[in-house]
User: Fold these one by one.
Assistant:
Number 1:
Amino acid sequence: MTPESLQQLSEQVHELAARRFWTMPDFWINLAVGIGSIIFSILAFVEAKRAKRAAIEAGKAVKLQTVTIELTEIAQKLDRVEPGMLFSDARDLLAEISRRLRRATAPYATDPELINAITAVREALDAAQESLRSVRPSDPTKENETPDAVYYGMESELASVNNCVADLMGLFEMKSVAPADSQVQRRFWLWKRAAKPLPPSAARAKAAGTENAAVTDSKE
Amino acid sequence: MENPEMVEFLRYVDDLIAATSSGAIEWTRANPTTVIWETRSTAPARISLQLVDSLGRTTTADGRIIRKRERSYLLQLTDLRHTPPRQRLSVSGADEPAINERLRRLYDTAASGLSKKGLEFLREILPPRTQ
């Protein structure tokens, strides 16, 4: 290279170094592309989050429908109870519906919209277990001497379980149609439930541990 | 107002109570809440008496509906002359308080007798107390 060309090259480099970066068109093009990329990334993130929320809600809706179908099957089994039922059949039936009910309702045990109904179901199941113990035959070989004893001894408690299952079915169906809008609403329900003082009858009954006030409380 | 059948039935229950108290009738326990008496003397028959706990609804003075435990008794008479045995009579105390009360007395008398017999047998088999 000749000294003159080196001189020219050096002057060009000096000129470029002296120029401010924001006066160069490359900067603005890169800036626009960068900002566009960030915006589209944010939009993609928001959409992905919405899609995730929608997928979760869809999963919850499917779960609600599954639970409703399970409860319907349990109610149909309870409808088929009739006189002449053997103790072993009653024991197997109660074990099956107890297991299926607890499994179906366990994920919703703390849901403020369902907690009362789920508690009622569990109490009814406990009462049914108690009634099953009261009809255990002393001599299984002579169970046919009192063919209707198991049915009459458990009829009321099984009907109570059936009624509680029907209540739960209605609540689950309602929940699948109109789910809670957001976590804020859920937290509001929890706060409201914690802050609401119990009526005097319910407070006394809670201390005494009786059943009646639970029904009275629901009527109030 | 009591009908003639009910009056007659209550009289028969009174006879059962008296016979149970005197030991003429021996009841056996079918399950924790059911006692049965089987007779082969004149006509083979079986009487079963069951204690039934149920949830009933009552209205309080201020109009609220509450659930409470109700205890009733169910008496069934089975004719053993046929195969299969035929049920001749089924009376539930839930329908009539007077009947329920009488059946309660019969059940308590039968259950008490069973307990006494059990204790007597236990006393027989226990070794004598050393003083």
Number 2:
Amino acid sequence: MYRLLCRLLPESLAGLVMACWYTLLLILTWLYWDIASGAFRYLSL
Amino acid sequence: MSFLSTDFLHWMIGIVVIYWLLPQRLQMHFVALFTLFFLLLFSPVSALVLLGLLVVSYFTMQRWRNSVSVVLLVGLIITLLFLAYKYHLQQPPDMVVDVTLLLGASFYVLRVIHYIIESYKGSLARHSFTDYLHYMLFLPVIVVGPINRFDEFLRELRRRRRDGALFASGLERIVYGYVKVVLLAGYLVNQELHGYINALGADEVWLRSYLQCIEYGLNLYFMFSGYSDIAIGFARLLGIRIGENFHYPFIQPNISQFWKGWHISLSSWCRDYVYMPIAAHYRRPFVGIVASMLILGLWHELSARYVAWGIYHGLGIVAWQYFQGIKPRCLVSASGLKGHAVTAAATFITFNFVMFSFAITMSENLGAAMAVYRNLLLLGGGG
């Protein structure tokens, strides 16, 4: 993904986009952590 | 301990920090000791079994590597004990005592058998008991795999060094792993899709059954590949590269490619140690394929439904191989837009073939699975 961004954007901007992307993923993971833990109780894999 | 616990995250951070603070000669000793401590804490019987297998397999191959009968006997005993353990897990829950649940056994038994066979073949590089100990007691892969190979692990052990790019890629894999487990499996599939399925009307029997297969398959994929990503990422944080375990299995154009992209470490283990010897002995690839898929099914669970699942996939691969020999030339030479259409149709068929197989594994028994198939084939009476 970073290499693709570097073809489209200057390297520093690509780095910034990647940093924002990871931050977004971490925030979403943290927000949905309890929901995911609860949802797995439905399962019996 | 679940990967979905903050305790595990704290442990992972602590282990990585201490690991890189230690001199290189002590790093893998620390990981092995910590892995042993982890197993003793959560599954003490498993720790003892693993240590026993480790010692027996190593010293057997050091002393009796050239004795076929001893090697076969040890391999057979290990396999039979593993099958007995799998049979024990099939007993009613009140008969299965928690202490006998061997954490990681399904994975480290296969590593031991791999080590025995490769040692017998003489294909392993020179190594010590400590190298083997580090291979078997490697925390990132101890619980859910991947089933990494000893020779690859040995190479990684030898060339470990501080590598910022590898460390960063490890962090990235862990993030993507948790995104798969938490967002894709935990929220999108198990919350949203599950809720949608529950809200379907009683008369939408086909759609309910089909979406239940999709739910099960997607959940299994996102969870298992997510946990594999976390394991691979964790290993990279310790400077060790391990092989991939999944490679976009649901967008493969045929069942053979699917199995080259699903649980790669297990399917390649079956290819090397079940399919190749059997196919070579009987000179019939069909026998090797069905035997491999049967073993794969029984590895999951010693039950009729997993036998059926193994046969389902085995026959699917055989049918695909047969089709390669008879398919019309217009499909073979299709290119451009027509080629893309053929690939899309093949991927759609493969995806649904695999999803339909989950009707067997998601059901409690074969009877319940047949009810799901009756719904999927619009035969009615499935309930």
